[in-house]
Specification:
Rossmann fold, Helicase, Ruva Protein, domain 3, 2 domains, two-stranded antiparallel sheet, 9 strands, 46% helix
Amino acid sequence: MIVHATAGRLLRQLNDVIVGKAAQIQDCVACLLAGGHLLIEDVPGVGKTTLAHALARSFGLQFSRVQFTSDLMPSDLTGVSVYERGQEAFVFHPGPLFAQILLADEINRASPKTQSALLEAMEEKQVTVDGATRALPRPFFVIATQNPQDQVGTFALPESQLDRFLMRISLGYPDRGAERLLLAGADRRQLVDALPALLTPGELQALQQQVLQVHLAGPLLDYLQDLVAATRSGRWFLQGLSPRAAIAVVRAAQAQALLGGRDYVAPDDVQAILPQTIAHRLVPVGDAGRGAVEQVRAMVEAVPLP
């Protein structure tokens, strides 16, 4: 299967750079094939930015990087109109948002005002500057990294912005063997700079269309609706998933199935991507004693398979 072979090359190339994190890398590739935005959350120094750079280069897309800081302004993202005397007119100078992949590094170090400037871009694939609406390049992805909220100088992302991310993943510390490879191996930044592009934008968009064609059987949709209903029951979470979030689960599961070389979604595909796709959208009930990811896994255990 051509798609499976292409996906295999992508995954192998990324695993050569980010060692010991095969599951997280597959989630990242599935997220981008599903056309979603990706949030990578973890402590500094575990490879979040390196992974984002490696994804951009491997997918063959034009990308820009913005280091989010407390003094970053919305116009620093969208761009500004500057009066040019030679043309006797205001000329728009596009900001870093006008790229196919935007790496928003440490997004939660920016103020809420600047964070909100991403909302229109992420949802509508366009920005409005000086009253004019300007389309962003296609495809358009945001890969954002953020530090844990208990670190100094961070601003928690609002629920409305978290909901725009298809997936949130965490890399975690490497195991001893993977860390040994990092210590003894080549510099990761040099490896990223040498990565070839394995896809063109047109090939990526063709893969995204194939994701939409992956079959969803009736019993599988029943199972998905049972899971969504469980989030709304009040037993596990304060508020349940929205229909938009349910569609996000469908797209992520279709991409997961395509990466596995299948043209249909299985319950295992839904279970594999569910915590990464919905945990950041949910708040566990107060007496649960678990985080959102652990609560999602407990809920999955309680919902019977079709």
